[in-house]
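Annotators were shown the component list below and the corresponding predicted structure, then asked to write short factual statements about the assembly.
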Amino acid sequence: MKIMKASYNDLVTELKNKEIRLSHQRLMILKYMNDNRIHPTVDEIYTHLNKEIPTLSKTTIYNTLNALVEAGLVRIVTLGDKESKYDIVTDDHGHFKCNSCGNIYDFEIKMESLGSDELKDFKIHKKDVYFSGLCPHCLKKKIEN
Amino acid sequence: MKIMKASYNDLVTELKNKEIRLSHQRLMILKYMNDNRIHPTVDEIYTHLNKEIPTLSKTTIYNTLNALVEAGLVRIVTLGDKESKYDIVTDDHGHFKCNSCGNIYDFEIKMESLGSDELKDFKIHKKDVYFSGLCPHCLKKKIEN
DNA sequence: GTTCCTGCAAAAGCTTTGCAGAAGA
DNA sequence: TCTTCTGCAAAGCTTTTGCAGGAAC
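Structure shown to annotators:
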């Protein structure tokens, strides 16, 4: 799936619009998520950024992500794991999780076409589509063995 | 959405087929889930069944649900809450969660029509569709105030 | 008689909270 | 200067684990 990365300036502008202070930690976290579209966990973000900011704490990552979710810049992706995964909000897309390697793949999906007459009186804010199974790589491995 | 309830005998047969011992606790838990299609949490199951089985422990509920998930009789519904919710496996359906009252509504959805060319080399085991927003009841309340 | 299950207590793991010092506006 | 943020330590919650007694087969 094609991924549009925002520029650093776009991110700064977004934060300013949402009245979120531009701390060094927040900018680093947002930049990491923008550059690495891997639906990271808090721990993954921590492990990566700790090299550059040794004083960084997980509390700050939790605080920042909660603020970004609140502001609508980031989404929590719940795929049945204990740890939450986070995703920069982009166009509508589904998530496929490989049960073997654990990787998550994005795929395009037309959310408008998703619906039901039963929901005609409901106000729908968010549509999530989660698939799971085996990715091509793990599938090939399984067939070979 | 129309819900098909299994008979008590059907449940017993299912358990026997899966080689899960028919303990009193397990039968009570499964019966509760079959009779009350409310996607209960462990705590809700516990609170309800504790009246009938005062010695029941949450550990047993966790053990039982894990066994039922393993056997494919029950699904975990992850809707972004801390607590997991559990659903007896039935036909394909989507879940709508009301952000105001927290209730979960089932709705019909044709899972076959869901897909993407990007996933043609993937082996898909499970398709989940989660919507969220406001249910008619909470929507009405909001408009009135 | 075996094997598996129950339930208590304790542990494990993720996330939140309280708060003093630091940094952003 | 004033407000908000950071990061440490501790607490809060859900879920899992170890294990002795008990129930299912």
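Statements collected:
1. The mean pLDDT of chain B is 92.
2. Residues 69 and 75 of chain B are 6 Å apart (CA to CA).
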